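Probable U3 small nucleolar RNA-associated protein 11
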Amino acid sequence: MSSAFRKAAKSGQRPHRERAQPAARKKFGLLEKKKDYRLRARDYHKKQDALRALQKKAMDKNPDEFYFKMIRTQLQDGVHVIKQPKDEVTPEQVKLMRTQDIKYVEMKRVAEAKKIERLKSELHLLDAVGKSPNKHTFFLDTRREVQEFDIAAHLDTVPELVDRVYNRPTIATLQKETLKGATDPIHLKKLARQRKNQYNLLKQRIEREKAMFIVAQKIQTRKDLLDKTHKVKVKKETTNGPAIYKFKFQRKR
């Protein structure tokens, strides 16, 4: 016998037993204990007291009392909309900010141009993708010479090196010196892949430098528009260039 039953037997009271879980409510889980009901009741009354305090505060509020949203909002289609504050910036300050923006973009563009020149000096634009093929024209006197023309013999090299546009040694050079550089096909493929990656990087840098140049032009145009001089738009702004304006000529002292 448990201690609760022994205490109840001594006092002559009926022992308390936990209510069994009904089979119909088994899917909802175990029933809440008495402590859980007490916590829920306290939370409910606390929220009701807070709602009553807010209602009393709203009823006691003076509708004519000043508050900042009275001057910060405006009525649009029956709805109060907060006004957006205007930027407190003078035209001189705006021009200075535009100048700083142009200097920053120009600095980044110059740095990109230097990287492009360094890449070009390393690659020399050899057999670049998209480059127009070189043409080497040979002039002959008769049709017979054209039919019997041997380009390898004319260039004094071996037939395997005729298609090269660079590093094409003559037969005499090949006889005197050993072949330098990579000759393994796997190594040659690796070098070709690295060269292709370098050309892709060069292409990306050229496009980035061009985009920065366009951005600098657009910022300069917006800076020029801050002047009060009469102007007429000649051409709309595009993704590849800024808008073009024609300004009224003014004689400067």
